Amino acid sequence: MELTTLIAIWAVVTTIVVVLAYVRMTMGLHDILDIHLSGNQPAVDAHDAKISKRVQTIDRIGIPLTVVSAALALSIFVVWAMEQAGPN
């Protein structure tokens, strides 16, 4: 595979990972900022369960994409090193 193609694919995958991480972070911040200290609420709020399900979905997609991004970065390095070492 050509180095330029690998870099383009890596850029797209890494951008998706960064966007998913940002979305997950903001969901977590809303969860922290929305803490209720009164005892008048049920143990598990329906809204909290919905956010938890979304976070699980993001994790299910984001973690493997992070691994793919790291593997692509490693393959970019290997291809670059092979091009540098090869005959000109």
Could you describe the 3D structure shown?
This protein has helices at 3-33, 46-85. The chain is mainly alpha-helical and 88 residues long. Helix 1 packs antiparallel against helix 2. The protein is rod-shaped and about 75 Å long. The mean pLDDT is 85.
List strands and helices in order, with pairings:
Layout: H1 3-33, H2 46-85
Summarize it:
Helices cover 81% and strands 0% of the residues. With 88 residues, the protein is an all-alpha fold. α1 runs antiparallel to α2.
Share in helix: over 70%
What sort of overall outline do the alpha carbons produce when their principal axes are compared? rod-shaped
Q: Number of DSSP helices?
A: 2
Query: Whole-Å distance between the termini?
Result: 18 Å
Unreliable spans are: none
What is the makeup of the main sheet?
none
Percent range for β-strand residues: under 5%
Tell how many strands the DSSP assignment holds.
0
Q: Which descriptors would you attach to this protein?
A:
88 residues, mainly alpha, 81% helix, rod-shaped
